[in-house]
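Researcher: Go.
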Amino acid sequence: MPLLVLLAGCATMSQNNLPQTKRDALRIDRVDVSLAPNAYINWPDVFRTLPQSGHPDTNEGRFAFLEKRSGGRIRSLIESQVKSAFRGTEPARLKVVIRRLEVPSLVQRILIGGENIIAADITLTDGKTGQVLLTSDFTSQAYAGGGLGAVAVDVVAEEAIVRVSTNFGRALAQWLKTGQAFIGN
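Model: Structure:
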């Protein structure tokens, strides 16, 4: 049971008012993932290596460092979860603008635990006309656990950014497809 608690995730979002017939017909051909210019990023273990990267310790430098280190992985993990769920006939595009990314440090996870979080603004558009079909704020959390047991799970589990990105993509796909919140991994 403790393992389930350690790996549990959840998602929060606004209402998905897209009719189910429209959702079923969607084929998401493109998923664009980016960081908002004013995104809040809290990932201490990664940013500790910022000085060695050659990037300045500014917002722009941190964003460039994060993009180079993990941007492609975050994008591909979210994209793989979303695109595989939509194989309909009506082309659509999804834009995901991350405004919050939190991955607790090892010390925090040992002492008090925490949550891996991605919060984003999403926009789903018709692939032919460009008409906006749906906009929402969307947050996905994957509990990072607390104590040495949780850190031991981290050693054998996927890297935190992989877990939170996959969880975000899976929860977003589930919500876009069914209109229902996603709970669990």
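Model: The domain at 2-42+73-178 is CATH 3.40.50 (Rossmann fold).
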